[in-house]
Amino acid sequence: MNDNYLWDRTGEPDAEVQQLEDLLGSLRYQPRTLQIPPTMSVRRRRAFIPLAIAAAIALLMIGAGLWVRFANSNRRPVLQAERGPDSTAPARTLPPSNDQPMSSTTPEPRENFSAPRKANRGVMAPKSRRPIQPAEPVLTAEELAQKEQVIVALRLVSVKLNLAQRKAQGLPQINSIRNHKIG
């Protein structure tokens, strides 16, 4: 047997190889056109997948709307704590109840830090979702004058830096005289 026959079909084939080729020759690939039998039905595209996605999105939106609605419905009126003019004033004591006789000495408030305090939800302020803006500071006349000087100095430095940048880049100079009234 010639070994080249198995690779490039040159030389004489072996008898066993020739017999195998004849047996398997009927199973060889034979090109032909695709023929779909008429009894086979074409499968339709599934229309329920986009509907299921749309229904899931709608349920999520309804759930989010209900959650926001009920989360905001538990709010109670806000009670504002008043701060006196003197923040270092001693704490006020509550008046005695009706079943206790009024004495000349006021009882001192006791503080118990070992037991956790239960929060009274009606008195607590709700959590605010908007950012707290600090109050603008009130400036004195001297501070306002200093502020104006700093602003003028920053404008002057900005103009000078722009001129230096234009010179360094070789760009044409701009008219540096602005807001100048003639006459």
In short:
The chain has helices spanning 4-8, 15-24, 48-73, 141-169.
Notes on the protein architecture:
The chain has a domain at 141-172. The radius of gyration is 46 Å and the shape is elongated. The model has no long low-confidence stretch (mean pLDDT 75). The chain is built from four helices and no strands. It has 183 residues and is mainly α. It has helices spanning 4-8, 15-24, 48-73, 141-169.
Keywords:
183 residues; mainly alpha; 38% helix; elongated
Which SSEs are present, and which pair or pack?
Blueprint (H helix, E strand, L loop, with lengths): L3 H5 L6 H10 L23 H26 L67 H29 L14
Averaged pLDDT, please? 75
Q: pLDDT under 50 segments (min length 5)?
A: none
Query: Which structural category do the helix and sheet elements fall into?
Result: mainly alpha
Strand content: under 5%
| Global outline | elongated
Q: Whole-Å distance between the termini?
A: 117 Å
Radius of gyration: 46 Å
Sheet with the most strands, sense and barrel status:
none
Question: What is the string of helix and strand elements?
Answer: HHHH
| Helical residue percent band | 25-40%
Instruction: Please count the helical segments.
Output: 4
The strand count comes to 0
